[in-house]
Amino acid sequence: MFLAIMGFIGIGLMVIFAIFMTSVMSMLPQTPGPFGNMKGFLSVFYIVLSALYFAPIYYLYKYASDMKNALLSSSSDLVGTALGYLKSHHKYLGVSLIIFISLYFLLIIGMIVFFASSAMSGAKF
Question: pTM for the full model?
Answer without folding.
Answer: 0.77
